[in-house]
Fold these 2 entries.
Entry 1:
Amino acid sequence: MKNLRGKALLTDPAHTKSTGFTYAERELYGLRGLLPYDVASIDKQIERVLGSLRCKNSTIEKYIFLNALLERNQRLFYRTMIDHIDEIMPLVYTPTVGEACSEFAHIFRNAQGFYISPEDRGEIATILKNWPEEDIRVIVVTDGERILGLGDLGANGMGIPIGKVALYVACSGIHPAQCMPVMLDVGTNNIALREDPLYLGYPYPRLNGDAYRSLVDEFVKAVQLRYPSALIQFEDFLSPHAFEFLDLYAQKVRCFNDDIQGTAAVTLAGIYTSCRITKKKFTDLNIMFLGTGSAASGTAELAVDAFRAAGLNRSQAQKRLWFIDRKGLVTARNENIKPRIKPFAHEHAACSFVDAINEIKPDVLIGATGVAGTFTEAVISKMSSVNERPVIIALSNPTSHTECTAEQAYHWSNGKVIFASGSPFNAVQFKDHLFKPAQGNNAYIFPGIGLGIYASAARLVTQSMFLAAAEVLASTVSEQEIHSGSVYPALSRVREVSHAIAVAVCHVAIREELTSLSLPEDISGYVRSLMYEPNY
Ligand SMILES: NC(=O)c1ccc[n+]([C@@H]2O[C@H](COP(=O)([O-])OP(=O)(O)OC[C@H]3O[C@@H](n4cnc5c(N)ncnc54)[C@H](O)[C@@H]3O)[C@@H](O)[C@H]2O)c1
Ligand SMILES: O=C(O)C[C@H](O)C(=O)O
Ligand SMILES: [Mg+2]
């Protein structure tokens, strides 16, 4: 415990137990007189935390309160989060984190995470040595250009890596000291931010072209030097940069893009589970996407792998996937089709979104636009008229940017829809049924992927790992959850899910010869032994 004593120990967030120090510890560490009489159990402290939390009037105040707790007492924060994940996750992650990013410069208290600006060019490897931890296993990095559906938030986007790191710890048990949030602050094209006198970031237009790419490259290389065991998670980069960096680095370093690959796996899992409700065969499904960006094309690409694994050839698989953009159906006749969308631009007459649903009759509709209200009543009614049980996944975050709300989905489909959404919604009473929509968020995937990479020390992160993660996630959904309309397991089981995903990742790493570790026979027990449990 770093020989901490007295006030220094009491105020050290990683080591304090606050009122939880026993009398013997108070004697030993020079804490007598520094604490009130009562020795509180962690459960009693949690009760106090929840009492104060629930008095706050707004979600942003709750965010600030929880962040302050994290800075004060790490173990208490994570124990509270793990034990009350349904209540806490939406406050430290999506959707509140969106609000926190928008307000970041105004609610800022203390720097968390690592900031790199263009002025650090040529010195990134050197300044990385300022980070106090020696054994980093997970780095979540953003350049803030596509923060959820909120657009370019510049350095305010740091809230996202901080939130994702909290999920790594709470949802898969990677130790907080081994996770690092990073902001590649290359400027912002958001003029309102640059003009905000309180803005904390590099107050210039975004770097672009070679200047931008070479800074990202320097960062990736510096990480290999300073933290060779780290996994780099690219987060909330705008496409096409998102794809560009994935294509450039995925075969060279231990990295993945969460918006492309993590999202693909969670969405695919939801589709797999929906087949248990609809009784449709997976390989018979037609899937339609609204939006042609990272999340949608990443999902389509993983779906191709899934269809192929289930017996279709590549061309048959691609034909099951359809894209809608702002102008309607993307067909082979369109001009300037994005390279990643080309395989899914099929021969078809041009038509509107609703007409495309009528003609193609997709079983599954996925929204990844970042634009609220794009699943209109006409869209949902049409999905319900061509399907007995339409499957609709509105991925966009935060809640204010969702393609449709859960309430709209159940009402407009007359209770027929199987619905999931990127941001959480409360249960919806429709007629005599209480629907509990599930949260289709990559939070079910990336923590387990990270833990699996940590455990296996795999050199690379591969598509097969995401495919395996999707299968594992789908397999964890219980019959009861399915009955209540959920295609994902309850959040309260997310650690169990992450553990299972990590075990699957280890198996893929062995199968694909990506690890030089000789993993113990009991991989499940081994992975569990790595999971941090915040207790005193
Ligand atoms: N639930 C999750 O786990 C999860 C994961 C990743 C992304 N997302 C969310 O998905 C959204 C999109 O993320 P992305 O990374 O794919 O962004 P992106 O910018 O790469 O893609 C957005 C796409 O939507 C299209 N679009 C915008 N408005 C449209 C409209 N009215 N009609 C049709 N298409 C339209 C854009 O042209 C673009 O192709 C964001 O809100 C993000 O928060 C959710
Ligand atoms: O951050 C989230 O909640 C999911 C996803 O990574 C997103 O960008 O929306
Ligand atoms: Mg994201």
Note: The chain has three domains: 6-91, 104-253, 258-536.
Entry 2:
Amino acid sequence: MKELQIPQGTLLLEPDFIADNEANNLFQSLQQQLDWQQAEIRMFGRMVRIPRLQCFQGDPGINYRYSGLTLQTEPWHPLIQTLKQRVESFAEHTFNTVLINYYRDGKDSMGWHSDDEPELGINPVIASLNLGQARRFLLRHRFDKTIPQRELLLNSGSLLIMAGQLQHYWHHSVPKTNRLLEGRINLTFRHTFTTDTQME
Ligand SMILES: O=C(O)CCC(=O)C(=O)O
Ligand SMILES: [Fe+2]
């Protein structure tokens, strides 16, 4: 595991967490078997469809708030349950939810944001697993515009861990491109606190 040096945040990358052929098989199975939804969010006073498909799984009874929406967790898909266990033992951290994003082609994307919802706790550990098409992942400092933007290429099978103060100080995004790209599935494993569980 490689620690990427970034001020005010922790970023770890394991480029070959899952072997290529297994990652491709997982991509195919999940692409076919998950119940993909295209959420609508309110933007500038009107409802727009987000440019990607999503699915949210986790332990029972956990809600997830996202751009004004409240999503209910679906039960763990068996393949994802197994992946969760592998990621947990590698990251030495437990997760109770996963947000799964399916970028169908280069036009699908995720805008600048940080994962700083209060239910994720103060300094969340988020483990981000990539399957399929490699995509650019950008990071930009939220406050100090003199700090250069960072760019990673997230290959199929790679695992990126975001931790420490990263979500407080950095935004991240997956930009769209005009290049013809294949599909990519990204899974962000998270620990979501509920009113019944303690914040760290
Ligand atoms: O697709 C990615 O690499 C990023 C996903 C992400 O930022 C998120 O789910 O919050
Ligand atoms: Fe994110």
Note: Residues 113, 115, 172 surround fe (ii) ion (ligand 2) (CB under 6 Å).
